[in-house]
């Protein structure tokens, strides 16, 4: 499958709505776009510099700890949670009652990140690991009744107040297990013939398109990026977090995901990523 001729999927008529059913991605791929290849080369160079930096600074673990807290606040902010980094590092007893839910969501994200990085020492990057992280993210906060740690068994949607006015309707719940199995196989496949940064860009797009959980898909999808880079050895330490960039460019982020589904333009998404 050529990057430039990718077909993203199709709309499937349901009883009162159409769900988007994505193309399976565990295929043999070919990078056939020179502009993407050039950007990939530049990104690889920057990633190498970041990796070297993480091995040179004297207390990289403290740096990562603070970076993860910042990532937690930024990633949650994209979802509408309003906690800043000053509040995130405070103990619970110092947080105002009306802000405790938002504060707890950030703490959960930090715990999920740290736990997942530790689990990578014994577990492969897999659906099991993502489910474990999802369970932590939703514990005791808004969304705690939305099947934490389990793939959804009902239809969800993005934007709007119902399926009738939704901006995007992910695949029907009956296909989620197949799509996520295909995604997991793609993570570990050696037939895909793709550089790692292109592969994780496709993985992130596909995960957000499947939207396998009832809640927390954005946070898990962004977490997936860091976990992939660490699991493949591209980063020795988890020092790269993209939520800050995604939040600053939120409109472009969503637009570039959407353009893949509506116009089959995977190249534009890869350039953005």
Structure commentary:
The longest helix has 23 residues. By secondary structure, the protein is mostly helical. The chain has one domain: Fido-like domain (Fic-like fold), CATH 1.10.3290. A hairpin with a 4-residue loop joins β1 and β2. The protein is globular.
Distance between the termini: 20 Å
Task: Tell me what the CATH architecture is.
Answer: Orthogonal Bundle
User: What kind of assembly state do the chains in view correspond to?
Assistant: single chain
What is the general shape?
globular
What percent strand?
Answer: under 5%
State the main characteristics.
mainly alpha, 11 helices, 2 strands, 273 residues, Fic-like fold, single chain, globular, two-stranded antiparallel ribbon
Chart the SSEs and their pairings.
Blueprint: E1 9-13, E2 18-22, H1 34-56, H2 60-78, H3 85-88, H4 100-119, H5 127-137, H6 176-188, H7 196-210, H8 217-231, H9 243-248, H10 250-263, H11 266-272
Antiparallel strand pairs: 1-2
Helix pairs in contact: 2-4, 4-5, 4-8, 5-8, 6-7, 7-8, 10-11
Condensed summary:
This protein has a single domain (3-83, 95-272), classed as Fido-like domain (Fic-like fold, Orthogonal Bundle).
């Amino acid at each position: 499958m050529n990057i430039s001729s990718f077909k993203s999927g199709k709309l499937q008529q349901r009883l009162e709505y159409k769900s988007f059913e994505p193309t399976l991605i565990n295929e043999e791929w070919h990078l056939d776009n020179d502009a993407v290849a050039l950007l990939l080369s530049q990104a690889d160079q920057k990633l190498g510099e970041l990796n070297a930096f993480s091995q040179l600074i004297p207390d990289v673990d403290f740096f990562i700890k603070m970076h993860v807290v910042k990532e937690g606040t930024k990633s949650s902010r994209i979802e509408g949670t309003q906690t800043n980094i000053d509040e995130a590092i405070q103990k619970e007893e110092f947080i105002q009652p009306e802000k405790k839910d938002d504060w707890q969501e950030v703490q959960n994200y930090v715990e999920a990140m740290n736990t997942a990085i530790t689990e990578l020492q014994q577990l492969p990057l897999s659906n099991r690991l993502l489910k474990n992280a999802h369970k932590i993210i939703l514990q005791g906060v808004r969304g705690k009744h939305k099947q934490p740690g389990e793939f959804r068994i009902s239809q969800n949607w993005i934007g709007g107040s119902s399926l009738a006015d939704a901006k995007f309707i992910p695949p029907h719940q009956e296909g989620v297990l197949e799509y996520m199995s295909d995604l997991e196989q793609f993570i570990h496949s050696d037939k895909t013939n793709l550089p790692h940064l292109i592969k994780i860009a496709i993985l992130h797009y596909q995960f957000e398109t499947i939207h396998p959980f009832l809640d927390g898909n954005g946070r898990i999808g962004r977490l997936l990026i860091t976990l992939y880079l660490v699991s493949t050895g591209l980063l020795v330490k988890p020092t790269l977090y993209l939520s800050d960039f995604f939040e600053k460019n939120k409109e472009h982020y969503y637009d570039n995901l959407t353009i893949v589904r509506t116009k089959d333009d995977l190249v534009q998404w890869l350039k953005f990523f």
